Structures are given as structure tokens and as C-alpha cells.
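Each record in this resource describes a single protein on a pair of labelled lines. With that in mind, the following record should read easily:

===
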Amino acid sequence: MLYFLLALLASSAAIALLITYLQVRVHLYPQSPPVMPQSADSAFQRVSFSTEDGLAISAWFAPPESPAGQAALLLHGLRGNRDQLLPHAAYLLEAGYGALLIDFRNHGESDGSLSSMGYHEIKDARAAYAFLRARPEVKSVAIWGHSMGGAVACKLMSEVDAAGLFADAAFSDFAALARARAARLGYPAALAEFLFIRMFGALSASDPASIRPVEDLAKVERPVLLLHGSDDDAIPLSQARQMAAANDHVELSVFDGGGHSNLYELDPVRYRREVLAYMRQAFATSADS
């Protein structure tokens, strides 16, 4: 009986490790679709720049039309690329803003062989922000990010003097992300969190426990708009509420019935209206300070 119990425990541990590894792989090696070429009359020019650890990041850049020189840095989520940012760039360009759309490392046409849910991607965002600030036609920058890109945007916003931050479906911290995934799988949350964080950190050469957008957000002194779906099954709305409570500068806009990646498709008129109104407020506040 003892040997049977030991064998059962060993097999259960092996299964737990295998499930955790498979979940970690989804985040380390996401399948990013190829970037589609732009038409000849596109407003975007192809650009690239290097990160502090030597990777080449591919991007599209459209300069601002307004002499105010206001532009947005757009950051996609896991398994995305800069194509997925085009709908947002379209209404920003129409309003006269410039836009820089990047491919994170290991996504689209950028260098890199693995992803880290924001730990290393912040280096890509820093390089992108530096690129924008070095452009003579750009005088002020706002940051927009979705999911993983939203988490990176929170980190970047805590480091730079950007005009404003817009985060769509961002997670509050890596541990909460691990717990949410465990809950969806019916897996013991505490064990999954421990295994997921340890294994992810070892395989990605990162410290995932340090990925805490909620703490980054608490340091921000500029306007912040969080957009989140009430039915987001990847990142529960409770995480967005926790982030909104971290700072008086944060406004949370909840889209009833919204999922993780469909808020703009759910109500594009409302989405554009809220983002553009907040953009105007952010840039005006930045100009007055």
C-alpha cells in the first residue's frame, strides 16, 4: 500500500509538472502571426531600433500631423504583432496624432527567441520610447498597451515622463495571472502559482514575481485610463479594479460583456471616444505642467 501511495504521489507530481510546463511554453513561445505588408499609400514608414540587450525591434511609424507633435506608442499583447494595433492607430492618425507600432521581441519581425510577459519586453518599450523622443517632430508621447503590452506600458510609464497611459486588459501582477490560469484549469492555485513562477523564471531567465504592474501604476502621476471587459476570462475584472484603486489618477472603464481582446470590436464608437477624450486630457495636463 505504501509503495502504491508513493507511486501515486510521484505520478501526480509528474503530471503537475508536465501541465505546468505546457502552460509555461504557451507564454514563452507564443505563435505570432506574420506581419502583413502596408499598401503603397500607407501613412507608415518601416523603422527599426536596437534594445539595450542588442535585439532589433521592427516597427511602423507615422509622424504627427499637428504642430503640437503629439504621438502614441502602441504595444500589443502576447501572440500579437503590430498589425493588431492598426485599428487603434487609424483613429489616432485621423485625430492628428502620430503613432509608433512595434513588434515585441519574439513577435512579428523583431529579433528574439522567447517571451517573458513583460520582464524583458520592457527593454523593447524603452527603445521605442527613446526612438520617439529622438524624433524632432515628436514633442510629447502617450503610451497605449493591450494585455502583456498593457503591463509593459505600466512599467514604462513609471520610468518616463509620458503624457498619459492607456491600458486595455492589463494584468495586475504575474502571480495573479498564474492564479487566474490555474483557476481556469481547475488546478490548486497556490501550487500552480509556485510551480508556474519558478519554472517560468528559470526558462526565461527572468524574475516573474517582480512583474507587478499594480505597483508600477501606484507611482504614476499622470492620467491613466484602464479599459477592461466584465467577462474577461484571461484576466479577471477584479485585477483591473485592484489597479484602479492603487492610484487616484486612474480611471477604470468597464465594457459590459467584453472579453479579453474584443473591447474595440464590441463598441468601437465608445472605445474611440473614451481614448481620444483621455488623450486630449493627458496631453493638455502634460503641457500645463
